[in-house]
From TrEMBL:
<dbReference type="GO" id="GO:0098632">
    <property type="term" value="F:cell-cell adhesion mediator activity"/>
</dbReference>
<dbReference type="GO" id="GO:0005923">
    <property type="term" value="C:bicellular tight junction"/>
</dbReference>
<dbReference type="GO" id="GO:0098636">
    <property type="term" value="C:protein complex involved in cell adhesion"/>
</dbReference>
<dbReference type="InterPro" id="IPR003599">
    <property type="entry name" value="Ig_sub"/>
</dbReference>
<dbReference type="Pfam" id="PF13927">
    <property type="entry name" value="Ig_3"/>
</dbReference>
<comment type="similarity">
    <text>Belongs to the immunoglobulin superfamily.</text>
</comment>
<dbReference type="GO" id="GO:0046982">
    <property type="term" value="F:protein heterodimerization activity"/>
</dbReference>
<keyword id="KW-1133">Transmembrane helix</keyword>
<dbReference type="GO" id="GO:0044291">
    <property type="term" value="C:cell-cell contact zone"/>
</dbReference>
<keyword id="KW-1015">Disulfide bond</keyword>
<keyword id="KW-0965">Cell junction</keyword>
<dbReference type="GO" id="GO:0042803">
    <property type="term" value="F:protein homodimerization activity"/>
</dbReference>
<dbReference type="InterPro" id="IPR013783">
    <property type="entry name" value="Ig-like_fold"/>
</dbReference>
<keyword id="KW-0796">Tight junction</keyword>
<dbReference type="GO" id="GO:0005178">
    <property type="term" value="F:integrin binding"/>
</dbReference>
<dbReference type="GO" id="GO:0016477">
    <property type="term" value="P:cell migration"/>
</dbReference>
<dbReference type="InterPro" id="IPR003598">
    <property type="entry name" value="Ig_sub2"/>
</dbReference>
Length: 302
């Protein structure tokens, strides 16, 4: 009986020995990978099945549809040279990521001794970039009852930043109605564009304002800027209008007196005549023209 069992096992082992390997098979822990700029990240290319002792391993970077070598002929190349290394058996470690590393990466393994001698896996890497100091626009002074807008923007952060506003170092709630302190405020915040709009300014809205841009990589904020809110100066407006009317009246009186004293008349009076009638030596008196006709004032003397 024992001999029969041994014979059966030998036959089974012999059969299994001639069954070819099902081939090289790859997998990864994550096909979509996020990394913060200037931090390390590892792209996993795990070999689940292989029979070949020394498979050919390659990594390619695909950006805008154009592939380029990252790991080829057992060395790092391209823009990752001196910034990456291969971790056995096939993982790619990027030591110092930059925003330019955002791309797709393809791990390729060729095993000539396997029945299925080639496999590949595609990994998408996105590098998060911390926002820079945003550009903030805060009006210096506004009038009670008017509308106004404060602006905040930065273009470097990735993913796109979300914006928050602070007054006197206290964050403004997204919905003013959600806070008893801001329930009477008329502002609205657009977290995507960074706009802070006041539909109707109040004296209580005065203060120091600053904006913060934030994403998954970090945050940055602009320096605080003071905004004053003034009441409408009715007396001041009335005095300015009165002064303007007084100035206009003075100018018109001056023009009237100047005209009355002849300051605007010309040096010569062209209403009279400056010529003399030719002498009537021949005994003929020439008449003045009257509507294009001659009129005799005296008879011709023959």
């Amino acid at each position: 009986m024992a001999l029969q069992r041994l014979t059966a096992l030998l036959i089974l082992y012999s059969i299994l020995g001639y069954i070819p390997s099902r081939g090289v098979i790859l997998r990864t822990t994550d096909k979509t990978v996020w990394a913060n700029e200037f931090e390390p990240i590892e792209l996993t290319c795990l070999i689940e099945s292989i029979s070949t002792n020394n498979p050919r391993i390659e990594w390619k970077k695909i950006k805008n549809g154009v592939p380029s070598y990252v790991y080829f002929q057992n060395q790092i190349s391209g823009d990752l040279e001196h910034r990456a290394q291969l971790i056995q058996p096939a993982n790619l470690l990027i030591l110092n990521t930059s925003r330019a590393d955002t791309a797709e990466y393809r791990c390729e393994v060729a095993a000539i001794d396997d029945h299925k001698h080639f496999d590949e896996i595609l990994i998408s890497l996105a590098v998060r970039v911390k926002p820079v100091v945003p550009r903030c626009s805060v009006p210096v002074a506004v009038t009670v009852g008017t509308s106004s807008e404060l602006r905040c923007l930065e273009n470097e952060g990735f993913p796109a930043s979300q914006y928050r506003w602070f007054r006197n170092n206290e964050e403004l709630p997204q919905d003013p109605k959600s806070s008893p302190k801001f329930i009477n405020s008329t502002y609205s915040i657009n977290a995507d564009t960074g706009g802070l709009k006041f539909r109707r300014m109040r004296k209580e809205d005065a203060g120091e304002y600053f904006c913060q841009a934030k994403n998954e990589a970090g945050h940055a904020q602009c320096p605080a800027q003071l905004m004053d809110v003034y009441d409408v100066d009715i007396v001041g407006i009335f005095l300015k209008v009165l002064a303007a009317l007084a100035g206009f009246t003075i100018v018109m009186v001056g023009v009237y007196h100047a005209h009355k004293h002849g300051c605007f008349s010309s040096g010569k009076d062209h209403t009279g005549t400056n010529y003399k009638s030719p002498a009537a030596d021949d005994g003929v008196e020439y008449a003045e023209a009257d509507e294009g006709h001659f009129r005799h004032k005296s008879s011709f003397i023959i």
